Amino acid sequence: LATHTADTTDVHGIPTTGALETASDVTAALRGHAGDADPHADRAWASANLASKTALGYNARDYGVVADGVTLDTAAFNACLAAAPAGSTIRLPVGTILVHPTSHHTIIVSRKNITIEGAGRDATVIKVKDSAGNYDCVVSDGRTTAPYTDVGGLTLRHLTIDQNAANNPISDVSGGGPLFTGDSRTAVRAWAGTDITVEDCRFINADSTAVISARGTGMKRLRVRNCLFDQIGPGARHAHASIYFDGDGVEVALCEFIGAGQAALSAIETHGPNQKIVNNTVRGYFQGCSISGQF
What we know:
This protein is mostly beta strands. It has 3 helices and 19 strands.
């Protein structure tokens, strides 16, 4: 779905294109038309425009995402997320979106109920660039210390995250190395919030402590469905769980896990009450599941 209509002019001359991206833009547009005969019509129209954009989605290309596998798209991707209010869908194009972690984090979600949606897990790829250095997360709230931002309602679907492990080797996998001192290389991290959903996604070429990590005070209801974890853990042996959950209520269903080396330690590790782990396939891991209940 396109996020903008064609360039036209609506009531009182307010443009209906991508000029009205945020609530502040709407306010500015209204101020510019304060002298018109019917400012209330402007306000109603602008509110409807913003609500429609939130419902239909924010097209990442409108914010400069190129997705050619060469251009670094990190800043443009984050600009799109920054413009989108809570409850929005970020629509990603076909292609490879090359990203580079900045200050240990890459794609920053700072609002609740954000959906990041690709054109298909074989069509849209978010890829970490070569020689990216140590980093903490690909998708996260961007916080390095508590309190973490509530990202409740975060949904990822129809995309691939390629962590490009072969071109980002880990120099030290010991307990004092970067993996365990703040640079875990997690693909998706949610450490505050409820109702986190990851569906129809593919995670490839990951060498990390976790691919998906959801935990923290009040963490409830993680759902991971119909996902592929492939070429996981190609490096030297170290602690790893492709899905790590510590909270109340987790469902992992219809997923496939394929390990690629000594670091493919555990496919699923969960802690807490109300767990549903069904119809998953695990190959090449040292351990399929580590499940512990409520203490």
